[in-house]
Specification:
The protein is mainly β and 189 residues long. It folds into 2 domains: 36 residues, no CATH class; 147 residues, Sandwich (Jelly Rolls). The chain is built from 1 helix and 14 strands, in the order H-E-E-E-E-E-E-E-E-E-E-E-E-E-E. The strands form 3 sheets. Strands 3, 6, 7, 9, 12 and 14 form a 6-stranded mixed sheet that branches. It has a 6-stranded antiparallel sheet with strand order 5-4-8-13-10-11, with no helix packed on it. A two-stranded antiparallel sheet has the order 1-2. A hairpin with a 5-residue loop joins strand 1 and strand 2. The radius of gyration is 18 Å and the shape is globular.
Amino acid sequence: MLVSSLLLVLAVALTLGVGIVPTRSTHAAGYSSQIEVKSEAHIVLRYGASGYRYKVVKHGADQGFQDPAYNASSFKEGRAAFGTGVNGCPLDPTINTPWPPNTDILVRKAIDLPAGTTELTVHVAIDNDAVVYWNGVEIGATVHEYCAAHNTLIAPVPDSAVLAGKNLLAIRGTDRGGSTYLDLQVLQR
């Protein structure tokens, strides 16, 4: 019970970007460990942001869309979250741009960063699956069922992949039927 309570507090703190001072936790097995969450996360890109370029395609179509040199002139402009909202899931009211079921959605977002930016993470809410790319390199993927939730996937961006100036965040969302949902944020710790 104690471990479950601590994990819930930690999850809420990470979601809200609230800090927790280092504390000692005793696990059910009797050993203790240090739990530490950095206190202030800087939001680089927040859930529900605008200025995305997106395209709805058949499953697996448009390979290479994540490459910064890819010609995305056929992409539309949209605001996150993307989805259908037909299942009454908690995040459904946040949907701003439609994404039909049984398709892939290709999403691209240019992010300008100052030199020396480090410790970035991409947080994804998805129904069903997602593959995340930073400047054309895959940094994370997840297979997910049922309602989307914030932080379903947290993908660390290698510091070596972050450029001074323009960076490209790209995501392929895949829906396998029913409701669809995709939103993301980028944090710096």
